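Sample intake — MBL fold metallo-hydrolase
Collected from: Actinoallomurus spadix
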Amino acid sequence: MTQRTEWMEPGAFQVAPGVHRIPLPLPHDGLRAVNVYAITGADGLVLIDGGWALEESRRRLETALKDLGYGLGDITRFLVTHVHRDHYTQAVAVRREFGTRVSLGLGERHTLELLTRPSRPEDSPQLARLLACGAGPLVARLRAAWKEGGQDRLGWEMPDDWIDGRTPAPLGDRELLAVPTPGHTRGHLVFADLGAGLMFAGDHVLPHITPSIGFESAPDTSPLGAYLDSLRLVREMPDLRLLPAHGPVTDSVHARVDALLEHHAERLDAGAAAVTAGAGTAYETARALTWTRRGRAFDDLDLFNQMLATTETQAHLEVLVTQGRLRSRADGDGVVIYETA
């Protein structure tokens, strides 16, 4: 086991008085695990995020809570950072059984309205977006995969309440501050415990990887622009311990935010250089770049990660247009073409 993987080991690990980190499994997912955080106190048991609604994840959560002297029925509330399945769906599953209150950022309403609406796979907004990226080959492969049963069929539901704007969330003798941090998703929240010096960061700030940008059913007009603004917002807050959804707890949110801002500045430069060298669409630009810490070629990524790479590249190119470094136009088929300004 390496230092980068030991955080995935099962259990309930105290990270602060009254706060335990519980890693839950993500089988068949490259992230491999997601941290949920159990907060105990005068207001009962509250969980930050819920995990993915899978039998293995439920068993792991039940075991960890039992070690703390609790059961699933003792959870009074889920405060969910964002709507992605590895954070939201198990909270909804527990609510169906025990009536637990589930809270989510208001910005996620757009995505949940689409996810809860009956539709055909070919109507997916993601496919239309990929077509605008010039990624026709990816769309054909995705449609084939969905016909074979690969589409996400989870039973999505609305939360009990929406968290609208920067909102205090009192938990007995502890108070969290819900702070909207759009970018990874439109309604992403972080929860700051200023009194204890903690930030429950969800996927907004991760210690070892950069969160995907632009992968959601109803993305913002400029998801990367929103994400960079949200990083700067968090950077202006007091420096807190980083309690991430994926990866180990670290001592400084600020240090990681600085690294993420530098990373995206480098990716913007790389995207601009690829367009200057002749890439015209987001898909062509993504294929010209390398991916992950290992610098993998686009063609070496699996289908899902090629989709993520393409939409993230589009997000970077749109910021370059906003900055005046590139210009864009749509061709007769609706494919967006980028050119040096």
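Post-analysis note: The radius of gyration is 20 Å.
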